[in-house]
Design goal:
This protein is mostly helical and 208 residues long. It has nine helices and no strands. Keywords: DNA-binding, Transcription, Transcription regulation.
Length: 208
């Protein structure tokens, strides 16, 4: 096999591993053996360990990808001409990507400098998206960027029981309800204080 062919095969294996790891970890739990990931991906254990020496490295890579996708979704939302539709696009994309599905590993893995950098950039863009919606009067003024991030986390949780078409239908209905609940002015005030950035980051460990 040529060098280009080997590189293409390695890229395919890596993509298969990442997809399998996300599926296994978010459905079977983060204690699932890496052998289950290799089996799901259809690759050997050697291929897995050549790319990721430890489970932590694999989880770090998955988290970084989720953060990068969140950044892309926030940028796409900000590029939308309509403040509400841009915000809704961001929320729907986060739910579709299940970008918050890896949140339960917070505090259990080391957060790399690149992860902090991308996460903070994604937060900055999302904050601009939320501020624009507030200024346009379409987002209730007691909802913060972190409220929306945590809402996406909740929708990223796997549904109980075996996969079924009804799960996605129910999720889309509830997401529509949630989006309507974000619209200004809001029927009732939200209870308690909004989540703080310090608490949100502290879940992942000490920031550099």
């Amino acid at each position: 096999m040529s060098t280009r062919g080997r590189q293409a095969e390695a890229a395919r294996n890596d993509l298969a591993l990442l997809r399998a790891a996300h599926e296994v970890f978010t459905t079977q739990g983060f204690d699932a053996p890496v052998s289950a990931i290799a089996k799901e991906a259809g690759v050997g254990m050697g291929s897995l360990y050549r790319r990721y020496r430890t489970k932590e490295e694999l989880l770090q890579r998955l988290c970084l990808i989720a953060m990068e996708r969140s950044l892309e979704s926030a940028e796409a939302g900000l590029a939308h001409a309509d403040p509400w539709e841009g915000l809704a696009l961001f929320v729907r994309a986060g739910v579709a990507d299940r970008s918050g599905a890896l949140a339960p590993v917070a505090g259990t893995i080391e957060v790399t400098d690149e992860m902090w950098r991308v996460a903070r950039r994604a937060g900055e863009v999302a904050a601009r998206l939320v501020a624009r919606a507030h200024e346009a009067g379409v987002l209730r003024n007691d909802v913060t960027r972190l409220d929306i991030a945590l809402l996406i986390e909740q929708f990223s949780r796997p549904a109980p029981g075996p996969p079924a078409p009804e799960h996605d239908q129910v999720k889309q209905r509830l997401l529509a309800v949630a989006l309507d609940g974000l619209r200004a002015p809001g029927a009732t005030g939200l209870p308690g204080e909004p989540p703080s950035p310090e608490w949100y980051e502290r879940r992942w460990g000490q920031a550099p």
